[in-house]
Design brief:
This protein is mainly alpha-helical. It contains 1 helix and no strands. The radius of gyration is 32 Å and the shape is rod-shaped.
């Protein structure tokens, strides 16, 4: 009888440890996913800033071309 109680306790402890391990794995995965999401958000922000700078440069170049064309047409 005492062997079955001991075996039951060992089994219960093993299941408890397995559950803790699963929780730790899930927490580690959630942390890794959060870090990846933060990295992707930073990359997206940088790309948006670069695109905005490119668009501003293109707008300035277009304005200069319009002024140059207007001057050429006036002559």
């Amino acid at each position: 009888m005492s062997k079955s109680i001991a075996l039951s306790l060992v089994l219960a402890a093993s299941l408890g440890l397995a559950a803790c391990s699963k929780t730790a794995d899930n927490a580690a995965n959630a942390s890794a996913n959060a870090a990846e999401n933060a990295s992707n958000a930073a990359d997206n922000a940088m790309n948006a800033a670069m695109n905005a700078a490119d668009n501003a440069g293109n707008a300035a170049e277009n304005a200069a071309n319009v002024a140059s064309n207007a001057t050429a047409n006036a002559m």
